[in-house]
Amino acid sequence: MNNRIQELRQEHDWSQKDLARRLGVSRQTVNALERGRYDPSLPLAFSISKLFALAIEDIFQPES
Amino acid sequence: MNNRIQELRQEHDWSQKDLARRLGVSRQTVNALERGRYDPSLPLAFSISKLFALAIEDIFQPES
DNA sequence: CCCGTATGTAAAGCACACTTTACGTATCCT
DNA sequence: AGGATACGTAAAGTGTGCTTTACATACGGG
Question: HTH cro/C1-type domain: from which residue to which, for each copy (chains A, B) (predicted)?
Answer without folding.
Answer: 5-59
